[in-house]
Design goal:
Oligomer: single chain
Shape: elongated
Radius of gyration: 32 Å
Strand content: under 5%
Structural class: mainly alpha
CATH topology of one domain: DNA polymerase, domain 1
CATH architecture of one domain: Orthogonal Bundle
Helix content: 55-70%
CATH class of one domain: Mainly Alpha
Distance between the termini: 80 Å
Length: about 190
Amino acid sequence: MTEQHWIPANFQSSELVAVLQEKYNSINFPLDTPAEAKFLKHPPTSLPQTDWSPTDWHTNKKRQEFEHLSSRITGTGLIGADLAAGYIREKYRNNNSIATIKQASYVVLSFLHFLSKTDTTIYKITRQDICAFVEHEQDRGLKANSVISNLRNVYTFLNFLVEQEIQAQAILSKKIHLKLPDSNSFN
């Protein structure tokens, strides 16, 4: 049995389109409301955006994360928490990534907790306090790269405090530098 097609073999596709348009264009669908009829006659130039674009979603997520971290810092009640929240706000305004803002907030919060345990405030920091914080981080079992990264975040926070004229420039004069262990010494 041979297969039969309803379209002749010599029929062109443009002819098919014309036949279908002629056949089905005469069908009218009833409209529910006069507003629908008006919309079809005069559609708006641009339809309202109903879905978030990836950029809007990312910005909203970043804003939520910033607000969460900021409220977490200020909720601790530590001395200097408001300054730390201002520092995180500065990171957000500089359009740093979410990961950078998170890391900075965790390190600054850890630094403020450390200062409160040692009965020091953010207003009375000395170089010895920063050295003690580095030792504290090493005692926690952090790897050398993590300690160096945390130290950089602390110095960035201190630089923010110097710019806000809360700390003296002298705190940044002799920075503490850590060296990574030589990778050949473990072989």
